[in-house]
Amino acid sequence: MSNIPCRTARLVTSFIFPDTPLPHIVAVDWTEFRGFMCLVAGRVARGRAIPFLVTTYQKGAPSLSQNEHEETFFHILKNTLRGKKFVVVCDRGFGYRRLITLLAGWG
User: Three-state DSSP class for 30?
Assistant: First the structure.
């Protein structure tokens, strides 16, 4: 039973990300929701983003830095979309050297 979330994630991503020769566009951004900070990835389709990956943490609670949350999130995103071609679109808040170097190293 412990593998159900993993199988569900693979099923959802195979539905949202059909096989195609072109890369998929993935939008990533932060949002605040009822005292939680949420980092969300969505597949862009027809001018909208379909959320498929979310991580959250409670505002004010001891936690990792925002940069560490983002870097961990991108590792999860990469593993979630393993085997799929994708391009990440973010705003300038994600433009720090360590993250850009990490993403550029992935190709």
Answer: strand
In this predicted structure, the answer to whether residue 5 has a pLDDT above a threshold of 80 is no
Average pLDDT of 56-62? 83
Residues ≥6 apart with Cβ < 8 Å to 18: none
d(CA 54, CA 46): 21
Q: Is residue 21 part of a domain?
A: yes
Q: Are residues 46 and 59 in contact, defined by beta-carbon separation less than 8 angstroms? A: no
pLDDT of residue 7: 47
* Cα dist from 13 to 1, 22, 107, whole Å: 20, 16, 21
- Report the DSSP beta bridge partners of residue 48: 45
Count of structural domains, the chain: 1
84: phi then psi, degrees, rounded to nearest 5: -100, 145
The C-alpha angle 52, 55, 58, rounded to 5 degrees, equals 145
pTM for the full predicted model: 0.80
Residue 103 counted as domain residue: no
Tokens of 14: 């195979």
